[in-house]
Amino acid sequence: MILCFNSWINSTRNGDDSVFSYFHHEIYSVMKKLAAIGIILLLGISCQKNCGCQDWTNRMEELYQHNLEKITIQQGVAGTVSLIEGDCMPVVDQNSCLQYPVERSLHIFSYTTLDDVVQDGPTTFSSIQTDLIGSVGSDKEGFFELALEPGKYSIFIEEQGAYYANSLDGEGGIQPFEVAADSISLVNPELDYAVY
Questions:
Q1: Do 191 and 82 touch, CB atoms closer than 8 A?
Q2: What is the CA angle 138-85-80, rounded to 5?
Q3: Is there a contact between 188 and 80 (Cβ–Cβ < 8 Å)?
Q4: How far, in Å, CA of 16 to CA of 20, rounded?
Q5: Which residues contact 123 (CB under 8 A, 6 or more apart)?
Q6: What is the enclosing helix (H) or strand (E) of 21?
Q7: Residue 174 forms beta bridges with which residues?
Q8: Beta-carbon contacts of residue 14 (< 8 Å; ≥ 6 apart)
Q9: Closest-CA residue to 28 (of 48, 7, 2, 49)
Q10: pLDDT tens digit string along 41-84?
Q11: Domain ranges for the chain
């Protein structure tokens, strides 16, 4: 395109080299910038398509289904880690309440109750006295999986140097789940920082 433009300009010169030279330089400079912007945009679109990235904000049910297809284990735990933030009051605009997948480290302990932890806040714990069974990281779409023996466990999200969990069972068990023989327990831990 730039070469074609140069040919056209050279064929239409009227002999005033100083004016022509100035405008030729300015137009050529603008054309180079436009070409560079076009290349950057094409690369950005190409990278977006190649990485398979999607915006899953407030589309968690779709994401849960999408992540089910990633499971490769035969027995254990799998799921999606997400973060909730914003004003989630029912009367407020729903666009201000956001939930989306996050990358985090997760730690699976043997079944843990409030008696087995040192609690720093309502949902954070600095120390856990039960056995650490395993750890796993979630991917960019929040997906994680970990093979486990049948049994009862508690799952914690590593968050800002502490263990995070925000649900209890009726016996004081923290974010519990159970793995049965030859089955996958689906767990979707949430980091909840929203206002309700």
A1: yes
A2: 25
A3: yes
A4: 6
A5: 164, 165, 166, 192
A6: helix 17-51
A7: 168
A8: 20
A9: 2
A10: 444 444 444 445 689 999 999 999 999 999 999 999 999 999 99
A11: 2-51, 60-192
CA 192 distance to own-chain centroid = 15
Q: How far is CA 160 from CA 7, 49, 105, in A?
A: 61, 32, 11
- Encode pLDDT of 149-194 as tens digits: 999 999 999 999 999 999 999 999 999 999 999 999 999 999 999 9
Beta strands in the chain, from DSSP E residues, in sequence order: 76-80, 82-86, 97-101, 105-110, 117-119, 124-128, 132-137, 143-147, 151-159, 162-164, 176-179, 184-186, 190-192
Report how far residue 52's alpha carbon sits from residue 41's, in angstroms, rounded to the nearest whole number.
Answer: 17
Pairing of strands 162-164, 132-137: unpaired
Of 158, 186, 185, 155, the closest CA to residue 169 belongs to 155
* pTM, full prediction: 0.73
CA 33 vs. chain centroid, Å, equals 33
Give the architecture-level CATH label for domain 60-192.
Sandwich (2.60)
